[in-house]
Fold these 2 entries.
Entry 1:
Amino acid sequence: MKRIGHVIGGVPAGTFERTAPVYDPAAGQQTGEVALASVGEVDAAIEVAQQAFGEWRHASLAKRSTVLFRFRELIVEHRDELAAAITAEHGKVLSDAAGEVARGLDCVEYACGIPQLLKGGHSALAATGVDVHELKQPLGVVAGITPFNFPVMVPLWMIPNAIACGNAFILKPSEKDPSPSLLLADLLQQAGLPDGVFNVVQGDAAAVNRLLNSPAVQAVSFVGSTPVARHVYERGTRAGKRVQALGGAKNHMVVLPDADVDMAADAAVSAAYGSAGERCMAVSVVVTVGAVADPLIEAITERVGDLRIGPGTEPESQMGPLITGDHRDRVASYLDIAAGEGAKVLIDGRDQAFDGDGFFLGVSLVDAVNTDMQVYRDEIFGPVLAVVRVDTAAEALRIINTNPFGNGAALFTRDGGAAKRFEQEVEAGMVGINVPIPVPVAYYSFGGWNDSLFGDSHMYGAEGVHFYTRTKVVTSRWPDPSTSAVDLGFPTSS
Ligand code: NAD
């Protein structure tokens, strides 16, 4: 059985006094055990990171960008290995895992431009003889706490900008799919990053809470569910840290009567059921406006019939298993809850049979859902798509804007005026117009609104650089050289 430990100061570590099982979700079998760090192990990582920060903060921008460029090349060389490591413990299909690596790579490429990104302002002659300039300096030891659903991409939302800005980083990955974090540590070491600038501490709430309580950790980036995001934000900020905590989601896709139904149906199927619905930007509610409901449901149903569900390693699979058996059962339980509340379960994922013990569940489509139902209110995080029927676009907008989450929202229409109105008025941090999963490119920043984000910085892009630096403004005045005791030959300035 594989034993998955920490990397502290560039070397493997872990007492394995407490462990958690790691599964191959497609087989439903335990393949490894991951160490769960004690407070002492977390403290050891923090101490090593503090020491490494002492030197790394002084590394030139040229040196930092050289490390990042090499890291970029190594990710490209090892992308199949990274994708395979994701699929082995997460279960998503290999093509999806490769896409995850590619999106993470975008964030590394962005950070390669750190000499440009850290340029501060400069004002000559702010007053007579007075200049003002700005320094953007690193914070110190910063931590990243990440969810199971993107074990490579989400850490790469944080690590490249954090280290490029001169910080030392401690990653606490999800205990459900911990192995890819060790590959990232290895590639960073191969790229020439000094030991201790990047560390991995495997663990659960005990490790997270130690990171939050330690006065030596200056900032925490978190991505995960809303209750834990709230906890991380409240505890971290109470301890005086800078915190960005991205939470859960319930993403709506509104389809207007003029939309291209085939385009909308393709989008709904891939955005609701891709990666088994375990994406924070997954579409979990389709809001149909007027007469588009029946043709759209028919088009979605046709496409669902062709979906191939199977192990992520099989090239023909389009959707893999869920992360654990417990999570699969929790997702499935919503189908009875929905029927009990009066919704119509048009496709019940439990009807599809699978060989073996894998954590598979077929996809589900639930019609006639209203906003009081649990199937609408809860983040299910599985392949269940709810349909809410309304009469007007204004009603669709009102539904989104009264939902507590505000991660992504999409509109399908041919009407530019309606699209403009939607993008202006919708309460969500990321908006798609005929794009179901509007994840911003790496040179913008990722983040939701309301219960989908605690803190004021979104992740990666310019807001990522802002989060991992603090600004110092220097005001300077130099005596006129003509007044120097040594004659430098300058005439007296007027
Ligand atoms: P999770 O909240 O259970 O876990 C996230 C991290 O927090 C893990 O590292 C875990 O070990 C740790 N953790 C769990 N319980 C904790 C506790 N009580 N105290 C301290 N730390 C704790 O999330 P998950 O199940 O791994 O991931 C799925 C969730 O993440 C979904 O809600 C999804 O929407 C969300 N997510 C959000 C985004 C986003 O950008 N907003 C992106 C990806 C995932």
Entry 2:
Amino acid sequence: MRQHGDQYIGGEWRDSLGSDSIPVLNPATEEVIASVPAGTAEDVDAAVRAARAAAPSWGATTPTQRLEYLSRLCEGLAAQQQEIAETVVAELGCPIGFATAVQAALPLGVAHSYLDLLDGYEFSEQVGNSIVYAEPAGVVAAITPWNYPLHQIVAKVVPALAAGCTVVLKPAEDTPLVARLFAGLVHRAGFPAGVFNLVTGIGTVAGAALAAHPEVDLVSFTGSTAVGRSIAETAGRGIKRVALELGGKSANVVLPGADLARAVNVNVGNVFANSGQTCSAWTRLLVQQDQYEEAVALAAKAAEKYVPGDPAAPDTRLGPVVNAKQRDRVRGYIETAVREGARVVAGGPEAPEGLPVGFYVRPTVLADVRPDTTVAQQEIFGPVLSILAYRDEEHALEIANGTEYGLAGGVWAADNETAAAFARRMDTGQVDINGGRFNPLAPFGGYKGSGVGRELGRHGLEEFLQPKSLQF
Ligand code: NAD
């Protein structure tokens, strides 16, 4: 077991100013594999000061200079793909195949997309008798969750650095190891001291101190709606900008005339990937009542292909969830669903057979879920799919829009035009039409309780810029 005692601050690894540590568990074995320091408010203060000191000179670099540093960071990410994937398997429990294809490769793709964007981006424009400059927002606090631990770091840190901001990152307690690996790559890329800083720690201590720090200009947060709300309140008092990527309860709507089997199979894969720990997962499948039983049977059949097992084994499709608390929470939701009238057609709340160790949950499909019940309204964050019946299109829209969230969604129809027309009426930030694939250049973010601001692509870069107008 590796005991880390240091934080990355001001261009070097320094002993944490606190003495407490956070154990890092492997969710498949429940073994402690490492520990990292539980950073204090003093660690955070040192990191923010380093970021503040570096901000003027980093903000004055040219896009071409920043491109050079970021290119070296991309080279590091490319060279470390295997280590990244293995680290995420160890601390998150994500199956190695998915970890390689998504947890390691997606952040590399996103980082590359910012190289391309930075290359052609106009940081000034003439508007009448003004030149409007896009200037860096300043010192950025990046607070990230554990479910896509490197992707969420890259989706904040890379555009922030590309924009000319300096950054303090506070990663999730459960997955600090890939964050440390990332800090090592930043160091090797030779960024000036203080441009990027890492403080590991507990959310309510290090995270709260970072979000409240007076020298932070912008807080970019991904995580739960409850914590996002408290961060927005704190930031509001400090007149800081915020970007919030929060939870979801996304609907996948299958309209009559669609390829039902494909829509259901894609939905099952979508919800069970990463053990259901995806904020944009289509956790509600909406099917017209005449096709409902057919859809339920298809989903139950598709779920059989997801057998929980060792995430390090190459053919495993479903690993454990991240920790014991999440496991108990997810199983509790399945029990609540049953109490509220749902029918379990695959999985269930019991522990999966043959896996006495590890935070495993049975991949579960719930039928007869009513739109007003707990599992149809609240984010479960586990491998649980709810199938809901609708009468007609208006009813489907009412159900799809009838939660506090609005992050993602899917629509399937006989043709793209019909699906797109329905999608335009959904209160949500992203909709995949007839299985349209994920686009890392498209803005990602939520309507309503799912958040404020956007990540990825040009919109993601512009979160970290602020306009300044000079009149002539
Ligand atoms: P969380 O909100 O508990 O924690 C997220 C981060 O915030 C962690 O780094 C944590 O340490 C920190 N934090 C906790 N309390 C804090 C506080 N008071 N002040 C400052 N920072 C604090 O969420 P989680 O359990 O890590 O992640 C799961 C949740 O995140 C789910 O609800 C999921 O939907 C959401 N999520 C959303 C997106 C998105 O892009 N919209 C992506 C991933 C996860």
